[in-house]
Each structure stands twice: as C-alpha cells, then as structure tokens.
Automatic annotation (TrEMBL):
<keyword id="KW-0446">Lipid-binding</keyword>
<feature type="binding site">
    <location>
        <position position="220"/>
    </location>
    <ligand>
        <name>ATP</name>
    </ligand>
</feature>
<dbReference type="InterPro" id="IPR027417">
    <property type="entry name" value="P-loop_NTPase"/>
</dbReference>
<keyword id="KW-0067">ATP-binding</keyword>
<feature type="binding site">
    <location>
        <position position="216"/>
    </location>
    <ligand>
        <name>ATP</name>
    </ligand>
</feature>
<feature type="domain" description="AAA+ ATPase">
    <location>
        <begin position="205"/>
        <end position="341"/>
    </location>
</feature>
<keyword id="KW-0963">Cytoplasm</keyword>
<dbReference type="InterPro" id="IPR013159">
    <property type="entry name" value="DnaA_C"/>
</dbReference>
<feature type="binding site">
    <location>
        <position position="219"/>
    </location>
    <ligand>
        <name>ATP</name>
    </ligand>
</feature>
<keyword id="KW-0547">Nucleotide-binding</keyword>
<feature type="region of interest" description="Domain IV, binds dsDNA">
    <location>
        <begin position="394"/>
        <end position="519"/>
    </location>
</feature>
<comment type="function">
    <text>Plays an essential role in the initiation and regulation of chromosomal replication. ATP-DnaA binds to the origin of replication (oriC) to initiate formation of the DNA replication initiation complex once per cell cycle. Binds the DnaA box (a 9 base pair repeat at the origin) and separates the double-stranded (ds)DNA. Forms a right-handed helical filament on oriC DNA; dsDNA binds to the exterior of the filament while single-stranded (ss)DNA is stabiized in the filament's interior.</text>
</comment>
<comment type="similarity">
    <text>Belongs to the DnaA family.</text>
</comment>
<keyword id="KW-0235">DNA replication</keyword>
<feature type="region of interest" description="Domain I, interacts with DnaA modulators">
    <location>
        <begin position="1"/>
        <end position="135"/>
    </location>
</feature>
<feature type="binding site">
    <location>
        <position position="218"/>
    </location>
    <ligand>
        <name>ATP</name>
    </ligand>
</feature>
<feature type="domain" description="Chromosomal replication initiator DnaA C-terminal">
    <location>
        <begin position="420"/>
        <end position="489"/>
    </location>
</feature>
Length: 519
C-alpha cells in the first residue's frame, strides 16, 4: 500500500495544478500563491500557513473554489482547508512590539498562554499620543496569536471627548454598548425590543435571535447590549461575545495545537460551549471556512439543545447567506430573524443629538438637520460627519453654525461607490507621496506614521471593518494600535488644518472617484 501524501506533498501538487489554470488574480494576488505552505493534515482537513492577512484574504475570497477543486483532483477526495498566519511571524511581531514599548507595564500585558501582540505596534508608541488620561488597554485572557481581540463596534464613537470602549476581559463585551444609549426609531425598534426580551429571558422565546441589516445600523451595538443587560439582571450568567474572525482564528490555533495536546482544543470548546449566552457578530464571514462551519454547527446544536441563548448578527437575512450549509441556515431560521433598516431623518437627528450630548457640545437644530440630510444610510458615517463639524469649529475657533457645517460637509455626498481598505491605502499613499507598502509597512518615519494613522482612521470611518480586521490589513497590527490611531487623528483634526484637509480631500476623492490619484 502506498504511503499517504503529507500535507506539503499535497500542497506542492495542488500548487502546480493552480499554476496551470487561468486564475483571475492581479499580479499582487498571484504572488500570494508563493506565500502558502501546508503544515498539517487532520483526516481530510489540511492546514495552510501564510505569512500575512492579505494572502489569507486572497485565498478565502478569490481562490476558494479553485483550491477546493485542485485539492480534490490531487487527492481524489474532498479536502477542507483552514488558514493560519504563521505563528513564528506573529511571535516575532510580538517580540518587536514588546521591545519598543518599555512603558507598557505588566498589568497591560496578556495573561494568555498564547504569544500575543500586546498593546501597541512598533510604529506608534504611547508616548506619541497626547492622551494623558487614556485608559490602559485591556488585553484578553483568551487571546490568540492571530488576533488579540476583536472590538465591539457598537460603541466606537471616535471622538476625543468620549471614552473609547475596551472589551471586557472575561466576556469580550463592549461595556458601553447598552440599550439605554441605543436610540430607537421605526427602523430599529422591533429589533431592539426583541433583543431586550432575549436579554431578559435568555434561551426562551427568541432563540436563536438573528439580527441582520446593512453596515453601520447598530447590529453590533444591540448584540453587546444583550450581553450587558443580561449580566445586569443576573451577574452569574456566563456570556461570550465573539465574531467570525476571532472564532475562526481560535479554532485554527486550537486545531494546530491538538497535535501536541488536547488542552487547547478543550479550553476552546469550553469557552464557547460552557456559556449561557453566545453572541456571534458578522456570521457571514465564516462562509467558505468549512471546518469552522462544521465546528460552529456542532457548538450551535449543543448550546441550543441545552436551552442556552444564541444571538447572531449578519449583513443579510439567513436565506441570503451564501456559502453556508442549508442545515445551519435552517437552524438560524428556527428562532426569529429581525431586520434593522436605515434610519429615517428623525431618528438620525435623535442619534446626532444624543452623540452631541455625550460629547458635551451644543449643536443647533438646523445643523443637526443638515448633517442628517447629508448622511442617510449609516450611523457610523453620521458620527463621522458630526466629528468633522466639531473639529472644524474647534480648528477655526468658530461657533457651530449651519454655514460652518455646510462648508465642512460640502464634499459629503452619498455614494454607491464601494470603498475598500485597498482604495484607502492606495489613495493615502498617493496623497502623501508614499507607496502602498510604506503605508502598511513598519517604517516609523514621521510622515509615514502619519499617513498610516490617517489610513487607519479612514478605514474605520468609511468601511465596516472592525479594529481587528483593520489592524490585520495594516501589517498585522494590534486592534489597540488602530484605536489609538483613530483617536489621534480625530484629535488632530481639531487642531491641525493639514490633517483636517487631508481627511477631507481624501474622503471627497474616494466617494466621488473611488480613489485619490497620484499627482
Ligand atoms: N440607534 C442607535 N443609537 C445610538 N447609536 C447607534 C445607533 N445605531 C447605531 N449606532 C452607533 O453607530 C455605530 C455603528 O453601529 P454598529 O457598529 O453597531 O453597526 P453594525 O450594524 O454592527 O455595522 P457593521 O455591519 O458595519 O459591523 C456605533 O457607534 C453605534 O453605537
């Protein structure tokens, strides 16, 4: 009998097959193929190891079907694959980070058993921020080499005057995303009420609860509010918030470790299965990650059968989720799918009024009306527009008036152009006369660091990506680095005309043309 092929042998053959196929890849994407190695095989599942997040995204988004077919051709069976970022690369990043951060004290570092990238990236040190009172970032006890922690976007109002939220160490909840600071209106009232009922009576009538809707409408906020409220009612409950990215990373890591010991996989299962409430954000992103889907299906069933509450968020209704098996979709439909629609004008004004109050700024009604007219579809962008107006007033030491707001938001157009982080990075590179690689790279030159922070801030403002995902795109940086970059740029926009103009001009070009062209 012939020896079964090793993971690397399978990959080598698959790689050769792929080279012979007409793949629709840009040269940069095609180069990613050389960054893949196969490090392990578990039955019919192969572990692919890559050195960065970009390669992983290319595999998932562009190569999934071709890879699956090529694996089948090479092995004669259906092979599923999981992708991990090389733990050595992450450990090296972690070491560099720690060395350059003498001020990060022991209490800020993770107690995790994993090699975690702590606190800051090598590029931005705490000293470079003028937030003397800034709270120490909380790191998690369950972190991974791949992501330290995902942010809960529900309360990420990026302003210098509000307290940026950090995830709770034990539950990963964003403590600041609550029902009492979620402004209800016709478009979200039903979802809010059902979420509140699920928080008050977990595991009963609304299980699973499935919340869906477009980007920036408050889904993550509600998901976190469920956990926070349930804990308020019963502090003994075991609650866990996660998102697809984090869950997948933890799963892949646990799987890798199971070569040496079962402890990591047991701990991982324990974290997700021994809970009373499991909150999963952005479930659409596990599509195509077959092994993770299988694991999640089993976890879902176990929790459901034991009467535990599950709440799930997605950008589309269960029936429109692509790349997930019907048996999982029918489970999602067992409970109650609820939709959040874009807010009407009155709700947008009410949200703006609440956000202005939180920032202790007085904004006349006609200005709130104007902002609400300019930004119609996304509450995150609504917050961004408000930030811009407040920054303009502070920069020029002028009162906030309708004409000041008009001037500030003159370039603000609702656009159908999809803005991606790649567009943002290319545009920022063009604006600052740098290269794409400079912006995502590790140079600490002042100009490069400034461009990188602007690009991170804009990725946060103009895309629906979480801090973790943005950090991953910017060379595998930690989520707290992204958060600090966002805070710094928001603060600078109120003090420095150059930064204000850079953000304004870049945003206008991206919204109108999808990119800022090189001059
Ligand atoms: N009704 C609301 N009241 C107060 N704040 C809101 C409301 N809706 C959204 N927000 C705020 O808007 C921002 C974006 O919301 P959130 O991140 O929850 O959106 P999302 O639907 O999860 O977006 P995505 O799909 O892009 O992840 C957050 O700061 C959130 O607190």
């Amino acid at each position: 009998m012939s020896e079964p092929m090793s993971a690397q042998e399978i990959w080598d053959k698959t790689y050769q097959l792929l080279l012979d196929q007409p793949l629709e890849l840009t040269p940069r994407e095609a180069a990613c193929l050389t960054d893949i190695s196969a490090t392990n095989m578990f039955g019919t599942m192969i572990v692919l190891t890559v050195s960065n997040e970009f390669t992983r995204t290319v595999i998932e988004k562009k190569l999934h079907a071709s890879l699956t077919a090529a694996f089948a051709q090479v092995t004669g069976q259906t092979i599923t694959f999981v992708i991990q970022i090389d733990p050595d690369v992450l450990a090296r990043q972690s070491a560099t980070t720690t060395q350059t951060l003498p001020r990060v004290s022991a209490e800020h570092t993770s107690t995790s058993q994993f090699p975690v990238i702590t606190a800051q990236s090598p590029v931005v040190t705490r000293d470079s921020f003028d937030f003397a009172e800034e709270p120490a970032p909380v790191t998690t006890t369950t972190s991974l080499p791949i992501v330290e922690a995902a942010d809960a976007k529900g309360d990420m109002t990026i302003t210098p005057t509000t307290t940026m939220s950090y995830r709770d160490e034990a539950t990963h909840l964003n403590k600041n995303a609550r029902f009492d600071n979620f402004v209800p209106g016709d478009s979200n009232k039903f979802a809010k009420n059902i979420a509140l009922a699920a928080a008050e009576r977990p595991g009963l009538e609304y299980n699973p609860l499935f919340i869906y809707g477009a980007s920036g409408l408050g889904k993550t906020h509600l998901l976190n509010a469920i956990g926070n409220h349930a804990l308020l009612m019963n502090p003994h409950l075991r609650v866990r918030y996660t998102n697809s990215e984090e869950m997948t990373n933890e799963f892949v890591y646990a799987l890798e470790q199971s070569r040496h010991t079962n402890t990591v996989m047991n701990d991982f299962n324990h974290r997700y299965r021994d809970v009373d409430i499991l909150l999963v954000d952005d479930i659409q992103f596990i599509a195509g990650r077959d092994a993770t889907v299988e694991w999640f299906f089993n976890t879902f069933n176990e929790l459901y059968e034991n009467g535990k509450q599950i709440a799930i968020v997605s950008d589309v209704a269960p029936k429109n989720l692509k790349g997930l098996p019907d048996r999982l979709i029918s489970r999602f439909n067992q409970g109650l799918p609820v939709n959040i629609d874009p807010p009407a004008h009155e709700l947008r004004v009410a949200i703006l009024r609440m956000k202005a109050k939180t920032q202790h700024v007085d904004i006349p009604m006609d200005v709130l009306d104007l902002i609400a007219e300019k930004v119609t579809d996304n509450v995150r962008e609504l917050e961004g527009a408000l930030t811009r107006v407040v920054a303009m007033s502070s920069l020029n030491n002028k009162q906030i008036t309708k004409s000041l707001a008009e001037q500030t938001l003159s370039d603000y157009t609702n656009t159908t152009i999809e803005i991606t982080p790649a567009n943002i990075i290319t545009s920022v590179a063009n604006y600052y006369k740098l290269t794409f690689d400079d912006v995502v790279g590790s140079s600490r030159t002042k100009n490069v660091a400034q461009a990188r922070q602007v690009a991170m801030y804009m990725s946060r403002e103009l895309t629906s990506m979480s801090l973790v995902d943005i950090g991953a795109i910017f060379g595998g940086r930690d989520h707290s680095t992204v958060m600090h970059a966002c805070r710094k740029i928001v603060s600078e926009m109120s003090e420095n005309m150059e930064t204000f103009n850079a953000v304004k001009e870049l945003t206008a070009h991206l919204k109108q043309n999808g990119e800022y062209a090189a001059r």
